[in-house]
From TrEMBL:
This is Flagellar motility protein MotE (MotC chaperone)/sporulation protein YlmC with PRC-barrel domain. Residues 347-407 form the CBS domain. It comes from the Bacteria. The lineage of its organism: Bacteria, Bacillati, Actinomycetota, Actinomycetes, Streptosporangiales. Keywords: CBS domain, Cell projection, Cilium, Flagellum. InterPro entries: CBS_dom, CBS_dom_sf, Mg_transptr_MgtE_intracell_dom, MgtE_N_sf, MgtE_transporter, PRC-brl_dom, PRC_barrel-like_sf, SH3_actinomycetes. It comes from Sphaerisporangium krabiense. One of its GO terms (cellular component) is membrane. One of its GO terms (molecular function) is magnesium ion transmembrane transporter activity.
Amino acid sequence: MRIFVARLAGTPVFDPAGDQLGRIRDVVVSMRPAAPPRVHGLVVEVQPRRRVFLPITRVRGVEADAVIFTGAINMRRFEKHATESLALGELLDLTVEVGGEKVIVLDLAMEQVRSGEWLITKVAVLRGVAGRGLRRRRGETLIVDWADVKGFGAVQDDQGAAGLLAAFEETRPADLANALRHLPDKRRAEVASALEDDRLADVLEELPERDQIGILGRLDAERASDVLAAMDPDDAADLLQDLPPAQAQALLSRMEPREAAPVLRLLTYAENTAGGMMTSVPIVLPPHATIAEALAQVRRQEFTPAVAAQVYVARPPIETPTGRYLGVAHFQRLLRDPPSALLGTAVDNSVDPIRPDMPLREVTSYLAFYNLVAVAVVDELGRLLGAVTVDDVLDHLLPADWRERDERTPEVDGGER
């Protein structure tokens, strides 16, 4: 059976009892002179976002939507040995030679040979490509024997990232962010450069502060400002606060005034207050909008579940800071009322909004006391400034390095790592 490794990315991994262990994030191989690479095993991401090693000898079945293993595995955090390579993270997008012609590696195929070993036997390559564009490239795709390919061991200044990104195309931003964290600095920069601004913005929002700064610092100033503009204003403000003041000011000055305005407003509030945590772009509609219009906004993909759980109702203008805040229409109420009904009839004003200077501890207590997933933030004039969501609060309650921490789980006997 021949398996292309890029298609394994994100595949669930199950034990024989049918319980899911995690998802595949890479394939570990060892390069050998004058011989196909040997497959050592799979990198599997288990909760909470920790990568472990699944030896290929434990794999008992590979299907289109599942990998099944047997026995026990070692739950120690995966660390790549010096003699190993990651098929997805390091080998895709390399420029190699087939028959004297330069081609780009799109995928690798592994097969189990008679000895029982798994080897990389085939390489999917793209030929006839002029230049190394960052987007999907056009050309002829070939599948060739490993022995016919030369150049895998060469160090390359610009490896590109289209193949790797294609393997992770359907993953959530948080999963792609975690994949980036495990790549070498050079490869991480190549992937970041290849991402669209919106996708890179989503990924940056899921990275630790150190990695955010590192990636942003490798982008030219114009691109960095575009990515900041694509981020949610509250996340952009948090990132700017972590940058040297001169760099932050330079990036702000390159942003369009209408894009910089909400970020500048958020920067005026202390970090651990409602104003410092809130998103300034919740769903806001006037009272004369219909329930159908409100539900159309809730369905928009760019809103997180916490933001989409309610629609805030205010007098025009409806961009923050709005006209007078009237109340909130909860998603459940919107589902119960006729689509043609006016939004103003579904307003709940039983829970008071909070002020932007409310400290984190009080905001947390407020959400818990009223069983809320979000709460409106208004100024002294009663204008809606934004909303604090439960995920905003969690980000500020957790330790600063929570995205980098691995839960300590006892090791399971029988592993081969």
